[in-house]
Amino acid sequence: FLIGQPLPSGCMRSAVREFSTRRLQLPKPVRRQGRRFFMNISKHSPALNRPMIAKGDPFGRPAQAEGYSAFRPNYPDALMAGVEVILRAQGCMDSRAKDGSMLVDICTGSGQVLRKLARYFDHAKGVDQSAAQLTNATKGSNVEYLQADALSVPLPDGSASVVTCAQAMHWLDIPSFLRGVDRLLRPEGVLVVLGYPRSHIPKMPQADAAMIEWYASLDDVWDCDRALLDMEFAGTDYTPFVQFSKQKVEETHMMSVEHLVGYLDTWSSFRTWKEHHPDVNPDTLQVLSARLQAALAAEGEGRTLLPVEFSFFAIFLRRPGDGRASK
């Protein structure tokens, strides 16, 4: 099938969801009107780019912000070193610039990206709408956090050398976000979009099948267009920016079931699912945990860790025709 076309009835995805729902003994999933898993991302549309951040604090539910700090995977040193090389080559870290160099990390969360890049800049600012996330964010001598909406960052025009947005752009109205970044960036500035799609456990098929079924059980409760992230924003219209580079690093993280489940428990989609199904016991994540433990047991005595594969990416964007060579 072609991306951008609705899947035919009776297709594999429907079968997987039907099987997953029956296997996990869940109530019929909550459906959202007009929702598609595969979407046309060749150009922006209202369906794709409506404001995604839910009312209230969808990332500050009980223990969720603490879970971000404790369980979310860190971006690999190899990827962040590559980010540094490209930004330095683009002249974005020049302290001789007026007011010094400044990094602005939008939707900073617990500050995972900010803490790895802040040391290369004179000033580093993390922006997030969630007070709970900012309470758990990493501190630093040149780091300042601002509680603000990602589409209305309270910083002066042309003040940022670099803007980063990690594991978050799929939550935003992308054209509005890009216009805001265009306002913030200096003429030589660069936007870096980072993230990682769904993780998998291909070396353990029994565990991987359990993960795939769990993912399918959440398809209809995402408050954002998760498929954009899982396709690494392929085909996205970045106007007024153009992509000039991309880096990827794949890593295998050896994780206990408890750590992996702790990470998945931070997913806002699962928290939304729990709100829709408060009486389901055990819940989907408890069922998944039991299946992952069974998969480890099937591997033989002494096996306690799951080889979970992550694929991290960084997309580099700048205004077209600024005269700099691509790196």
Overview of this protein structure:
With 327 residues, this protein is α/β, with parallel strands linked by helices. The chain is built from twelve helices and seven strands. A seven-stranded mixed sheet has the order 3-2-1-4-5-7-6. Helix 3 packs across helix 10 and helix 10 (257-264) packs antiparallel against helix 12 (284-298). The longest helix has 15 residues, at 284-298. The chain is elongated, with a radius of gyration of 20 Å.
Keywords for this entry:
327 residues; alpha/beta; seven-stranded mixed β-sheet; elongated
Show the helix and strand layout:
Blueprint: H1 12-24, H2 46-49, H3 64-71, H4 77-89, E1 102-106, H5 112-117, E2 123-128, H6 131-135, E3 143-147, E4 160-166, H7 174-184, E5 185-195, H8 205-217, H9 226-230, E6 242-255, H10 257-264, H11 268-276, H12 284-298, E7 306-318
Parallel strand pairs: 1-2, 1-4, 2-3, 4-5
Antiparallel strand pairs: 5-7, 6-7
Helix pairs in contact: 1-8, 3-10, 8-12, 10-12
